[in-house]
Prior knowledge:
Helix 1 packs across helix 2. This protein has helices at about 30-50, 90-105, 110-115; strands at about 5-10, 10-15, 20-25, 60-70, 75-90, 120-125, 130-135. It has three helices and seven strands. The strands form two sheets. Strands 4-5-6-7 form a four-stranded mixed β-sheet, with helices on one face. A three-stranded antiparallel β-sheet has the order 1-2-3, with no helix packed on it.
Amino acid sequence: MKVEVSHLDAMRFEAKTAKSSFVIDCPVISPVEYFLSGMITCSATDIIMLPKKNNITVRNLKVTGDALRNESYPQKFNELDLIYEFDSDADDESAARYVMASLETYCSTINTVRSDVKIRYTVIHNGKIIKDKAELISGGGAQIDMGEIQSCPS
């Protein structure tokens, strides 16, 4: 994947990809807001596409993201709370699996940051909360305390 960014004027830039181009107007929308929007959109596309494979239609999808950043520079994301709200003809368990599949496997942008960012997600399916602030176990990087783990002797 290749992207070329060129300065236009003031704080406006043009980003060119292999498929298209768009203007990034920094006073209006910051690059960090584009980044967060891209992560959320990446996952949202999964929530539309994955159910389609099972002839399930998703309606009224809205994904809200709230990122907590460091106070000091480089102001990296520390936490990300995602709320997935949608209607579908899937059962609740399947709806939750679509979100998990996106977060754990398919969404490359979220998976790029998830080892360093504590990620929580809520799923509201057909108006009912089916997951509430569930945490991805990999979020938080090396500071995860897995406790004592039972394993087979080697």
